[in-house]
Amino acid sequence: MTLADPVTLAIPAFVLLVLAEMVVARIKDRSRYEPRDTLTSLALGTGSTVAGVLSGGMVFALATWVWQFRLFEIDYAWYWFAIAFVLDDFAYYLFHRSAHRIRWFWASHVIHHSSQHYNLSTALRQTWTGFFSLAFLFRLPLFLIGFPPAMVFFVAGLNLIYQFWIHTEVIGRMPRWFEAVMNTPSHHRVHHATNPRYLDRNYAGVFIVWDRLLGTFEPERDDDKPRYGIVKNLGSFNILWAATHEWVGIAKDVWHAPDWRARLNYMVRPPGWSHDGSRDTSETIKARWEAARQERGEMWKKPISSSSDADRAGAPSRAA
Prior knowledge:
Layout: H1 6-28, H2 35-67, H3 78-101, H4 103-113, H5 120-123, H6 140-145, H7 149-164, H8 176-181, H9 185-192, H10 209-214, H11 239-256, H12 260-268, H13 282-301, H14 309-314
């Protein structure tokens, strides 16, 4: 069965919605869009489309080869599409979590987080090297179960389309019942933020329930406004550097590593890991922030008024 590519069909809507958000930003808050940043996102999205066309045939061929070993025969009934959509979203959650915890996958995914702005054009800032990083491996179990490759890639396209609209600050919070189940702009702003509280949280594609069930959920707080980008921002709008800088960093670290264990760890440990502990990972950043927060809390508990025991002891006695 041949199914249309829903992402290709959605491109005109993407463009119109980006233009509409630009108009809203121009009226309400011009800082939400920066021309060079937006052009970089659009160029990176174009490059990702080209890379997808070049590698798509190989990925589909591999999926078809794996599918021949399927455990069950699954047809194209509507309910199988629904089940495939849910399972594919869970596969996406696992991939996305790995893409933040394993540097090899992060090298492809970091491109999506490299903008310091959060708007609909950021959604188009996609990887050029997904095939090289083997991100497609996370969907292979679906083919082994028996879901036809055409069906899986179709629902994956729907997943990607859903994620487009959540890249915005124009929408605040959705109704409570929706926020409880679905990924929303509020939840995804947390994911894109570099605030220590928000690091490595909210990996969901469509259903936020995966994060709630697996301990990676963090709500957006009004007293901790998200700051976007990556821990060490690029400081450049160079498209090639944005697409490849982490791969370059891996290559340099592997080359200068003291032994083979360190070389492997520079590829498979979390971003920021170093053999001598000289760099920050998300864990060290969060731990330092938590320690500072607790210290501030202890300071608030210390008596500072003259009603404290120490002050009363040192005060002159009143005349009878």
